[in-house]
Model the fold of this input.
Amino acid sequence: MDEIMLHPTAADREFYGEGLILLEGIISEFLSCLGMMRRYQTAQGLRDPVASVQARVKSAASMRGKLARQGLPATRDSALRDVWDAAGVRLICPFAQNIDQTVALIRAIPGVEILREKDYIRHPKPNGYRSYHMILSLPLRFLGGEPHGPVWLEVQLRTIAMDCWANIEHQLKYKRDIPNQELIVQELKRCADEIASTDLSLQTIRDLIELPPGQA
Done:
């Protein structure tokens, strides 16, 4: 199920101003291009590599907090120029192999510019976090002319299992004064490793199921 959370508050509109249109625009443009490529694949009899999509513009409160932590001015211009995740899309894939397939589709989007990629799947964070991150920009066709600088979009790709772990870890890390916190961190890391092993096993099972007759 797609969850496109583009419902800005009055505070968001005040903070981002006309920049909000650009942030919502790059999300729409990206999802439109990727959606067309996904539909073309399924029309050819291939599986859709994406199970669900989530999208959001970072709230004004969250963005102000991030800018303050980084020692940057709490302004719209700084939010659009100095950080790269004001607009974000998360793509949830059924299997680990689908992440590589989706990354290949993203790279094939006409005019896409990829600023940075981080593979936290093959190189997970110390706490066990796994995901594939991309920072990209692409032409905004609805504009009469290009904005003064690129509008950046953060894209995260995860399997369903990785996303489940990340959501739970995100909730727990904001708890305060937790007893046995070191033990909890160790257990979360162990769970992340087990989830990665499960993802690999599920991929193997699917590959076995889809082997041509006589090759199993």
Notes: Residues 181-209 form the longest helix (29 residues). Helices lie at 10-16, 19-43, 60-69, 76-81, 96-107, 160-173, 181-209. The two ends are 33 Å apart (CA to CA). The mean pLDDT is 89.
